[in-house]
Write a sequence for this structure.
């Protein structure tokens, strides 16, 4: 099959009325209306939370002698940074905003903050949606899911993610992109330029830190992101782990019931099965889609992320209730 990359993420056509089409074409058109106002409100709110938690963390570093309080503040600050991944994800779909350049700008900024590259991710993620859970085609399946308690602990640590990001960014910056089948002759140079620019931003941030005589890049960016990375790993691990490896959107993806702060920071991506069935819907429409699609889904983690991970750990340990998360 020749290499090709969609300019936009694939959108399945509206299916005929039936088990896989709880939303009518009219409902999809109504729910699919994008909004600059709603996108900017969510982005502004997310950035405001980053600022507020960063301020509390900074005060803790300056004034508190209780390292547990400082660590808690750092993890909270880091969580707001790592979940900018969700802002990038939504913007890559070009559903965060109605205006294209707002999607592109927000995606790139959010990727920088969360150590992803949005240009690369756009094509990688497009392939993931096109071939969700299809072995040998879905690039997400190249990152193997935990098969033991040891591999679970390793995945949750975030260490494989960091190694992959460092190796990947520097390899792409050197022009080594031939192994990525979802890139083509047109998109490879775009990805290389974007990654090089992103690395230049990091280099500039390090230079500013050195110039100020303060390790700000480490204390206010790298460490908080590293501390909170396990939380993001746990959220993302819930999306497809234990789901079917086929093209059935009702069985190959999990929706997770969770609290409002996580739904806010994750741009409603816990409604992940709804997102995969209707990837053209903006984040603020997914809750409405859940009302119609939820009862038909094979995997809904009603006990939240904690319940899903407890079930997964039981399966990995082979203990009671080891059938795995649903």
């Amino acid at each position: 099959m020749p290499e090709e990359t969609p300019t936009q993420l694939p959108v399945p056509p509206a299916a005929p009325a039936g088990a896989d089409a709880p939303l009518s074409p009219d409902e999809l058109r109504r729910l699919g209306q994008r909004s600059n106002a709603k996108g900017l409100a969510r982005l502004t709110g997310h950035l405001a939370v980053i600022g507020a938690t960063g301020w509390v963390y900074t005060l803790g570093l300056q004034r508190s002698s209780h390292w547990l309080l400082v660590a808690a503040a750092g993890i909270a600050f880091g969580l707001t940074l790592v979940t900018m991944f969700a802002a990038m994800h939504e913007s890559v779909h070009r559903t965060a905003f109605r205006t294209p350049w707002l999607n592109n700008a927000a995606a790139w900024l959010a990727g920088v903050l969360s150590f992803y590259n949005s240009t690369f991710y756009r094509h990688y993620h497009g392939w993931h949606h096109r071939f969700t859970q299809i072995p040998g085609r879905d690039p997400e399946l190249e990152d193997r899911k935990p098969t033991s308690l040891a591999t679970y602990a390793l995945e949750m640590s975030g260490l494989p993610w960091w190694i992959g990001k460092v190796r990947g960014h520097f390899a792409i910056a050197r022009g080594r992109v031939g192994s990525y089948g979802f890139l083509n002759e047109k998109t490879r140079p775009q990805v290389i330029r974007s990654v090089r620019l992103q690395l230049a931003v990091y280099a500039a941030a390090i230079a500013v830190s050195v110039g100020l005589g303060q390790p700000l890049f480490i204390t206010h960016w790298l460490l908080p992101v590293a501390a909170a990375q396990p939380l993001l790993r746990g959220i993302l691990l819930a999306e497809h782990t234990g789901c079917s490896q086929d093209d059935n959107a009702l069985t190959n993806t999990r929706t997770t019931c969770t609290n409002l702060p996580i739904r806010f920071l994750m741009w409603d991506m816990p409604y992940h099965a709804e997102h995969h069935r209707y990837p053209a819907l903006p984040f603020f429409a997914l809750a409405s889609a859940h009302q119609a699609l939820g009862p038909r889904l094979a995997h809904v983690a009603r006990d939240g992320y904690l319940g899903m991970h407890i079930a997964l750990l039981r399966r990995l340990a082979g203990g009671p209730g080891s059938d795995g998360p649903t």
Residues 34-317 form one domain.
